[in-house]
Structure formats: structure tokens, C-alpha cells
Amino acid sequence: MIEFKSVSKRYGDNKAAALAVDNISFTVPTGTLTTLLGPSGCGKTTTLRMIAGLESPTGGEIWMASKQGQSESVIENVTHRAAHERNVSLVFQNYALFPHMSVLANVSYGLKMTNVKKADAKARATLALKNVGLVGFDDRLPSELSGGQQQRVALARALVLEPAVLLFDEPLSNLDAQLRRAMREEIRHLQQRLKLTVAYVTHDLVEALAVSDHIVVMDKGAIAQQGTPQEVFEQPKSEYVKNFLGEAALLRDDIDRFLKWQK
Ligand SMILES: Nc1ncnc2c1ncn2[C@@H]1O[C@H](COP(=O)(O)OP(=O)(O)O)[C@@H](O)[C@H]1O
Ligand SMILES: [Mg+2]
Q1: How confident is the model over 15-26, as pLDDT tens digits?
Q2: Cβ 11 under 6 angstroms from ligand 1
Q3: Would you tell me the crossing angle of helices 103-113 and 118-131 to the nearest 10 degrees?
Q4: I need a labelling partner for 88 at 20 to 30 A (CA). Which of 72, 96, 111, 205 fits?
């Protein structure tokens, strides 16, 4: 699991500058998916990068399970630990695949870097590709794949490392609407099937509804509200959250259908 304890982040040395992340506390229990939801600039990516160890907090503490799997996990203070010392993988919105490498080489690359034997790396990469439903494309180059297929490769590349924590930063924003719908369902199924611990960033309300166990609504670096999808959408606690939901009024049908389906 991941735990944020009163974490703040200010970029640069100017003490008068606004906090990018302002005293936030939340947990992502093992095997669940928590979404950071809010408009552009509210601090979602900064929060995710602090989980990954790519930014260090100005204040507060980050605790995390050191190993995958519930029984063996030990919760440790990782606030000052470097990115490579954390068992975390990040999936970006632009997939950053190696263009000159085949699908299989892209997925096994991270294992090669950690000295896994070649045959084992191939077997694990093949399994990861199967897990994301991409079979029969091993020898293709990324340029020979659709956007959705490239996204699956990026997902397989993160999964193959068997990270204790998987991070997604607006992973679907480069896909068209139809594919986005299909992929968010698949990410959710995969997360539940493999019991992955995931922190997921989006500005899209319906996407948050579709994938989350827990939603953290952010406003200018702070947490406006957090809870289950039902709690947030049935009992918005502030005008800010109400307005955020209001902007999605056109999607009300989707939300109603979802809430009915959850019950
Ligand atoms: N590297 C950086 N240096 C200075 N300010 C930054 C940097 N990255 C983000 N910010 C600022 O921090 C705030 C939060 O940004 P970010 O975490 O990227 O928000 P989001 O992902 O929700 O759009 C914004 O005001 C942004 O301009
Ligand atoms: Mg962002």
C-alpha cells in the first residue's frame, strides 16, 4: 500500500510561491485502485511523481509497502528514497516506447536491465503481453501498431517488472473516445484480476468512476474530498466538487448507470 501523511510540495526556492501540493493525506490500500481526480494544474502529476520518487516532498512523509503481495509486505518510510529504490512502475500518456525495438524487446527491456536471464525475460514478457491481450505482435515495431495496441505494450512493459505499485498518469488521453472506454474497462479488469495496487491520475470524471475503488478530488494542490465513487458523487461536500460534477452533467446518464451497476 501507499500512504501519504500531510505531504506538501513547493517547486523552487521561493518560499512565497504557491504549493503545488498542499498538505495532502490519503492511502491506497494493497490491491486497490485510487484515482487522483481534478482539473489541469491541481497537482495530480506532482503527487504521482512523489510516489515514484521523481520529486521529493517539501514536507510530510510517504510510506509504502516494499514488496508485492500482501503477506510479505513491510510498510516503510520511503520519503527520502530514490526512484530506483522504490518498487514502482509508471505508465505515461505518451507511451515512450523504443521506436527501433520490437514489441517483445520493448517489454523485456526492463528485465534485461535487472539481469534476468534471457529465456526467463522472454517468458515473462510473453506472459505480460498475454495479460494485456496482445498476442501475435511480438515482432512488430511500435510504428506498426495502433494507439490502443501501443498503450497495451506500455502497460505490459510496466507489468512485467511486477511492481508493488503501478502508477498511471492520464494513460488514455491520446486515444479516441471509443478506445478510451474499452481500455479503461480493461485496466480495471486487469487491476482486479492481478490484485494490483494502483494510483491513477485523470481529469475525466467518468473514467474515474469506471476504474476506482477510491477517488481523491484535488483542488489547487489540496484535497477537496475523498471517498468511494458513490460517496463523492452522491454527497459532494463543497461547491467546488458540486461544480466539478456539474460540468459533467451531460454525462449524468453514465453516472446513474454506473451507480446502479455498483449496487
Ligand atoms: N517542474 C515544475 N516546476 C515548477 N512548477 C511546476 C513543475 N511541475 C508542475 N509545476 C506546477 O505545479 C502545479 C501542479 O502541477 P501538476 O502536478 O503538473 O498538475 P496536474 O498534473 O494536476 O495538471 C502547477 O501550478 C504547475 O504549474
Ligand atoms: Mg498532469
Answers
A1: 888 999 999 999
A2: yes
A3: 130
A4: 205
Give residue 116 CA to ligand 2 midpoint distance, Å.
Answer: 33
Give the pLDDT confidence of 182-215 residue by residue, as tens digits.
Answer: 888 888 988 998 899 999 999 998 899 889 999 9
d(CA 194, CA 125): 16
What is the CA(139)–ligand 1 centre distance, in A?
38
Amino acid at 260: K
CA nearest to 3, candidates 229, 233, 214, 209: 214
Residue 193 grid coordinates = 484480476
Place of cell 496482445: 134
Distances 207 to 22, 41, 47, 201 between C-alpha atoms, Å = 25, 18, 19, 10
Report CA(113)–ligand 1 centroid distance (Å).
31
Q: Whose CA is nearest to atom 7 of ligand 1?
A: 11
What CATH code is assigned to 2-87+164-228? 3.40.50.300
Would you state the CATH architecture of domain 96-162?
A: Up-down Bundle (1.20)
What pLDDT, on the 0 to 100 scale, is given for residue 250? 52
Atom nearest to 42 CA in ligand 1: 22
